[in-house]
Amino acid sequence: MPATRPAVVSFHFGLAPKFILRALQHTKVPDWASVARLSEALYTQQQGCSAIITQGMEAGGQIT
Fold first, then answer.
1. Reported pTM
2. Per-residue pLDDT reduced to its tens digit, 17-57
3. Which helix (H) or strand (E) holds 46?
């Protein structure tokens, strides 16, 4: 069976372990993460995610 790879991997309610993020980045599979707080966005950015999806307050996002 031929190997397949996803067009993108998205994370909600936290990120995958660092070794999974690095594997995705190594194989050039975009990794997106949904965040609800600024601190989560900054951490996600530090981990090198391809895109950060921010949630508004109506979806559970917080200002802090």
1. 0.77
2. 999 999 999 999 999 999 988 889 999 999 999 999 988 77
3. helix 38-46
Q: Give, for 40, the enclosing helix (H) or strand (E).
A: helix 38-46
Tokens of 15: 């990120």
> CA 48, CA 59: separation in Å to the nearest integer?
24
Q: Is residue 33 a contact partner of residue 52, using CB atoms and an 8 Å limit?
A: yes
Give the helix/strand (H/E) hosting 11. Answer: strand 9-11
35-38 LR contacts (CB < 8 Å, sep 24+): 35/61, 36/60, 36/61, 36/62, 37/61, 37/62, 37/64, 38/63, 38/64
- Computed on alpha carbons and rounded to an integer, the radius of gyration of the chain in Å comes to 13
